[in-house]
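ARCHIVE CARD
CATEGORY: sequence design from structure
SOURCE FIELD: tokenized fold
FIELD CONTENT:
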């Protein structure tokens, strides 16, 4: 399965406006947008936000970033690392509203392991990350 096929599946989930994979440097690995939005500009901003999130996690003594939800008035953003140690790439989903979050997070959990494998096959990541078997601390 290819990265594009998985992103197409994510964009088909009700409420998802765009789905893209952003590399560590802030470049779009692949992406689709229902409204033709500027995914590269979004990728550049996401790379900065993810860097800040990782710095905050380190300051707090937390592990790697698991997910980040940024709620804005018109287009919330959901970020989820893909790949080993959350350093290879980030899946970025923009949503129509925060009301769609539950359904989107459910589909995200199903898609992340397949997306990690597809990135390995594409040469973008080094090994798949199995988020389904991870248990949050506490």
């Amino acid at each position: 399965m290819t990265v594009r096929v998985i992103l197409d599946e994510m964009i088909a989930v009700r409420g998802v406006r765009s789905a893209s994979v952003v590399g560590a440097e802030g470049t779009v690995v692949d992406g689709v947008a229902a409204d033709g939005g500027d995914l590269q500009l979004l990728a550049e901003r996401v790379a900065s936000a993810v860097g800040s999130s990782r710095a905050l996690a380190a300051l707090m003594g937390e592990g790697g970033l698991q997910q980040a939800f940024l709620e804005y008035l018109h287009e919330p953003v959901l970020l989820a690392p893909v790949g080993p140690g959350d350093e290879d790439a980030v899946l970025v989903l923009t949503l129509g509203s925060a009301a769609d979050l539950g359904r989107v997070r459910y589909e995200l959990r199903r898609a992340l392991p397949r997306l990690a494998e597809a990135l390995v096959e594409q040469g973008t990541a080094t090994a798949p990350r199995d988020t389904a078997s991870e248990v949050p601390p506490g």
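CARD ANNOTATION: Helices lie at 3-11, 39-60, 101-122. The chain has a mean pLDDT of 84.
SHELF: design records, drawer C
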